[in-house]
Amino acid sequence: MPFSCFSMHPQKILMYQNHTLMFNKLHDAVMVVVGSTKPKEIPVTLTNPDITTVDCSHDILSGQNGSSEHPMRLNNHTSSEAIGQLSVAICMQNLIKVTERLIQDQQHMKWNLRCLKLQPLSPVPSDIEISRAQTPKAIDVLAKEIGLLTDETEVYGQTKAKVRLSLLERLKDQPGGKYVLVAGITPTPLGEGKSTVTIGLVQALTAHLKTNSFACLRQPSQGPTFGVKGGAAGGGYAQVIPMEEFNLHLTGDIHAITAANNLLAAAIDARILHEGTQSDKALYNRLVPLVHGKRKFSAIQVARLKERCCSVTPGNEESKGHCFQSNSPHLSHASFFTLCFQRLGITKMDPDTLTTDEISRFVRLDIDTSTITWQRVVDTNDRFLRKITVGQAGTEKGFARQTQFDIAVASEIMAILALASGLSDMKERMGKIVVANSKQDQPVTAEDLGTPVFVHAGPFANIAHGSSSVLADKIALKLVGKEGYVVIS
């Protein structure tokens, strides 16, 4: 028995036999299974022209052609009168087959990638001349060619986009590709280093061997870009284009890391100032304010009151001040044992029941300024910021101290971002960053001050792992498929 179906990737499957519900939901649906004929109240123009429609009306199931205006037509039959059990079974079997085909369309397939043509010149022009001579493919076209759905990309201009993590869920059953690491090498006199080799290898795999392949690179820092080293887009005819957009700012992730890092640095100095100039009561009123006559601890404040577990080496119990949260992977190591205690020794969850002593311990981090390890950052090689003095204004009331600026990509936040497996993992790791010790030699963490959260990656290799993000690798492995390659440097 025939049925009408106009194919499209489904996100929802809506089944209706009541025309009132259909009227309310039809416009947002991408697949509709019609059990009755089209009511007069629903105009054809109401439906999405790309909608997938499976017509189970009596005329279709009985082999009649019906109206050509629309697969949902008007007659006097209701679904209960017109469709017998056998007809419904056959129709639903057809629906399953259609849906399976639609789902398969969303799974991995051989890329329909059209590679840009190279026109090598001799002598070889400069990197910037080569980049500007090639017209980049529109990013939305490229995304479609490699199997990304429209709602899986967040476009930045004409040549850049971010990929949403929802892709990992869609392709969770898709086998990953082969993982190739281009290890650290000394660049040749012509500047052929890791990035150039990585991009050249992927160009060969994709354009010449017609194999799905991705290159995963770090975002360049403006420090080296404007220094002796230069950018990190590759070189010659094996480079990322447009070179200027890749080397400068890209989608702004390094600037987001700079802001998050410096927010935490500012919070440290502000907390030292406030604790040095305000009473316990004043601090408590600011940290746990009365809202509609009631105080309530925030989630981060509750975390300070909860149990904390320390990984301690046998015979070195004095190290218990330097510990990990109870879900730390370090706690399972055989050479450690675990000590657990209340971070503040406070088990109360009602802010109004804390004693004067408990309030004092709650509001005061009592940071030892000589132990502060968290520095401000800037994504520029500015040697005169390597050692500075902050707090010299009169409004800072004498709370001056020496500190320094690091380069933005050396921030621990950058390393965490690149290693995190997801947003919740990133948030948890950031909360555990140790920024200083208290005068009682207890670690002070980011979540004691409030956790900065934002999101991609370009960690320096001399202070971190020096590669692109774990999430970028995971996404690339899924997109290339079982026979594809992901090359990182």
Automatic annotation (TrEMBL):
The keyword Transferase appears for this protein: no
UniProt-recorded name of the protein: formate--tetrahydrofolate ligase
Species whose genome carries this gene: Phrynosoma platyrhinos
Gene3D superfamilies in the record: 1.10.8.770, P-loop containing nucleotide triphosphate hydrolases
Keyword Amino-acid biosynthesis attached: no
Pfam name, any one: FTHFS
Class of enzymatic activity (EC top level): ligase
UniProt entry keywords in alphabetical sequence: ATP-binding, Ligase, Nucleotide-binding, One-carbon metabolism
EC number: 6.3.4.3
Pathway listed: One-carbon metabolism; tetrahydrofolate interconversion
Domain of life: Eukaryota
UniProt xrefs under InterPro entries: Formate_THF_ligase, Formate_THF_ligase_CS, P-loop_NTPase
